[in-house]
Write a structure and sequence with these properties.
The chain is mainly α and 77 residues long. It has one domain (3-76). The chain has two helices and no strands. It has helices at residues 3-54, 58-76. The longest helix is centred in the middle third of the chain and has 52 residues, at 3-54. 6% of the residues are buried. The model has no long low-confidence stretch (mean pLDDT 95).
């Protein structure tokens, strides 16, 4: 490859990296916050489902626990 073309490519790649960095940081932070919120909600469902399983509401506790488990695993993986 021509060294001049390689230099021009490197300059434009660097400029593109610098211009898009703030957007990638903001979108990455939003994705991280969304996953964290999903984990919190999933763990809350799991705890509530386990508490309902200990009482007479087993029919509501098991599905709630499983929904919380699946939500937590989805957000972590």
């Amino acid at each position: 490859m021509n060294p001049v073309i390689a230099l021009i490519d490197a300059v434009f790649s660097t400029i593109w990296f610098i211009l898009t960095l703030p957007f990638r940081l903001v979108f990455g932070l939003l994705a991280l916050l969304g996953r964290a919120a999903g984990v919190v909600v999933g763990l809350t469902f799991m705890v509530l489902g386990a508490a309902l399983c200990a009482g007479p509401l087993l029919i509501l506790g098991v599905p709630l626990f499983l929904i919380g488990l699946l939500l937590t695993l989805r957000c972590l993986g």
